[in-house]
Amino acid sequence: MSAVVIDKVTKVYAGRDEDVHALGPVSMTMRRGETVAIVGPSGCGKSTLLRIIAGLDDATGGTITVDGKRVAEPLDNVGIVFQRDLLLDWRNVIDNVLLPTEFMANPGTGLEQRARDLLDQLDVGGFAKRFPWELSGGMRQRVAIARAMMCKPSMLFLDEPFSALDALTRDQMGVILQKVQAAQEVTTLLITHSIPEAVFLSDRVIVMSGRPGVILDEIVVDAPRPRRLAFREDPAFAALARRIRLHFERTGVLVE
Amino acid sequence: MSAATMPSLKRRSRLPEIISAVATPVISGVLGIGAWELIVRLMALPPYLLPAPSLIVQVMIDKWALLWGQLGYTALAAAVGFAIAMVLGLVAGAGIAASRVVDRMLYPWLVVFHAIPKVVVAPLLLVWVGFGMKSGIIFVVIFTFFPILVNTVTGLKSADPDLLQLTRSMKASTWKMLWKIRMPSALPSIMSGVKISATMAPLGAVIGEFVASNKGLGHLLIQAVGSLEVPLAFAAVVMISIFGILVWYAADLIERKVIPWHASQRVPTP
Question: ipTM above 0.90?
Answer without folding.
Answer: no
